[in-house]
Here is the input.
Amino acid sequence: METKLRYLSRSLDSLEFLKNNRITSIIKESYDRGLQDLANEWWIYSQPKLLGYIVEELYNMVGEKWRDYDYLAALGLNGAPLAYLLGSRFMKRTFFVDDEWGVTSFFQQIKPAGIDLSGKNVLIVSPVFESGLKACRGIDSLRENAEDIKVDVLVMTLFPEYVDEELVRNKRYGDVTLYYLFSWTKKVRMLI
Here is the structure.
């Protein structure tokens, strides 16, 4: 089964987003500060207008399929603010998932207490800048802990070279629909 790639939002609006000097300067400055520093990546959330635009675009990308998802899953620490904002704004139950069902220094109960995910449709919300680097492990964690679960991934990619190649090439993820906001680089296209 082939990986399904969704270029759902390659509209002029999306291209205009990239042409906005203020937005791109914020993003570039965040990158220049270092991707390894979680606090720097979270700097994007201090820009309300930019964050609001991102949330609207991500929601519009999924479109009518939004109602098909039972839950949103916040992928990792960085995915949490975006996922919970999407969930609260567009009325979708949300929980946190990471590489392991366990305790981290930031979140205590990672496996959603009292929720049976078997047979459910879950949309993983990946961090704004990581662009799917942890998505494979997040998908695996969900599949290992629930039967017949359907998992898709939603991520905003401004710099597509950071997309996890494993997510695109591995046949284990062939049934996963990937919602990416912007187009792919030549290198990633060659992998498909």
Notes: The helical segments are 12-19, 21-32, 38-41, 48-62, 76-89, 135-144, 165-169, 186-191. Confidence is low (pLDDT under 50) at residues 1-15, 33-41, 101-109, 183-192. The first helix runs from residue 12 to 19. Residues 4-191 form a domain with the Rossmann fold fold (CATH 3.40.50.2020).
